[in-house]
Design brief:
By secondary structure, the protein is mainly alpha-helical. It is built from 7 helices and 3 strands; from the N terminus they run ααααααβββα. A hairpin with an 8-residue loop joins strand 1 and strand 2.
Length: about 230
Amino acid sequence: MSPASVIGWTMLSIVVPGAAHLRSGRRRIGFALLGVFLALIVAGVVVGVSIVGNPGALVRDSTLITTSVLAGVGALAWFVLVLTSYITLKPDRLNGTGQIVTGIVAGVLCVAVMAPFASVTNLVIVGRDTVNQIFAGDPEGTTAPIKQHDPWNGRDRVNFLLIGGDAAGNRTGVRTDSMTVASVHVKTGNTVMFSLPRNLQHVHFPRAPPWPGSSPTGSWPSCPTAAC
């Protein structure tokens, strides 16, 4: 077997596990590796189809941890696969130059096949940290538990700020087009609504706290209509 053949069959084993073993006559191991690879593909398809109907499962902490662990195991498995595929082709039968060249290429392949798995692991870890920061829980348990018979925890009135956006192709970004405060009486559902003009400016506040600290000028910051 020439150095080119050893390198070629080793590279083929990356995408078709067991190819090098079949080429070297180790059919039992070759077919076993190929069978495991096909089983992994089928399992991946099944998991992918199940996630299509439940995309929220992708950002679950358990899913992200499992993915990162599987990526680590995959990196190790493919490293061993390339190494054993190269060894089973018996490169020691080559001359000195062939052994050196094929050995260097095999070493590079062993490291290269781990790179995609390392990238996946890194992306999953970063994504998990991001999701946990955005949807952080209440570690100190200061949030009052939600009661089914009283979800508003005894509040008589709940206020909502409704904001409408305005954008167009000839403008940059989305601007606040309307601001409406809706105050809902919890027991009756009666709602009072009042609008805040988007060009509201120079509204004077009373001198009592907390306004002086929030607005040192004593009025609502100047906001030109075109910029609001």
